[in-house]
Write a structure and sequence with these properties.
By secondary structure, the protein is α/β, with parallel strands linked by helices. Helices cover 38% and strands 18% of the residues. Helix 2 packs across helix 3 and helix 7 runs parallel beside helix 8. The longest helix has 21 residues.
Length: 248
């Protein structure tokens, strides 16, 4: 029997006085938070605040490490060696783990952010760098099925969590279409698409192609303009399949 599906969200992405996303409204709707670690967004104060918010709502916290690209929000590619990338990721996860330890929480998983996520799906040395970091913290890694995420993470002995996106489009080859800024999406349509991904294992591309997919966890981005509406609609649409939350 399949495990219940979780709803996850990339969040904690404010920086200093700059706000990004409605974390307060999103946190009660999700099971898992992917918390920014300071390289594409966030800082020490926002990391601590997000961890504490997650704890209050019984939400598990994973690390959301990025390329060191604060101005570009981690959505610009950089050339880095495997060792350099592993060190970059370990550094970020270690910072978040300190805040988790301070609040008596454990690190749930690792999910690379933005362009780093995409690079790990198609570049072997980057996928191995993510695994090198996961070797240190011994937690599962989220990624896309049918890419190097699944192939290399599992070959390296890590638990792979197949992720589906509620608020991103898929191209005809099965890849994500990632823009610098996310557009609002039809919430009801997003919910229906997520339900189909779970029950039928398929998603329709922008070109109308039905593609195979896996959805052990579903992501909503906090910086999508109507993220709260989308998360609410998705949670309702997959109510028979989603992991039940335990409020703390």
């Amino acid at each position: 029997m399949a495990l219940p599906v979780t709803l996850n969200c990339d969040m904690g992405e404010a920086f200093g006085l700059y706000k990004m996303g409605d974390d307060e409204a999103l946190m009660p709707l999700i099971n898992v938070a992917n918390v920014a670690c300071g390289f594409h967004a966030s800082d020490f104060n926002h990391m601590r605040t997000t961890v504490q918010l997650a704890r209050r709502h019984g939400v598990r916290v994973g690390a959301h490490p990025s390329l060191p690209d604060l101005q570009g929000f981690g959505r610009r590619e950089m050339a880095m060696t495997r060792e350099e990338m592993a060190n970059c990721v370990i550094y970020q996860i270690g910072a978040l783990k300190g805040f988790l330890d301070a609040d008596g929480m454990t690190l749930s998983h690792i999910k690379p952010h933005g362009t780093l996520y995409g690079m790990a799906g198609r570049l072997e040395h980057i996928a191995h760098a993510i695994c090198d970091a996961a070797d240190v913290f011994e937690v599962p890694i989220m990624g896309m099925a049918g890419t190097l995420h699944e192939e290399i993470y599992t070959a390296r002995g890590h638990r792979f969590i197949a992720e589906f996106y509620a608020d991103l489009d898929y191209n005809d080859e099965g890849g994500l279409i990632i823009t610098r800024e996310h557009d609002a999406k039809d919430a009801a349509e997003a919910g229906a698409r997520c339900l189909r991904a779970i029950t039928d294992g398929k998603v329709q591309s922008v070109g109308g192609v039905d593609l195979p997919t896996k959805a052990e966890t579903i992501c909503v981005h906090s910086d999508t303009p109507n993220a709260v509406e989308i998360a609410s609609a998705v949670r309702a649409a997959i109510a028979d399949h989603i992991e039940q939350k335990e409020e703390s």
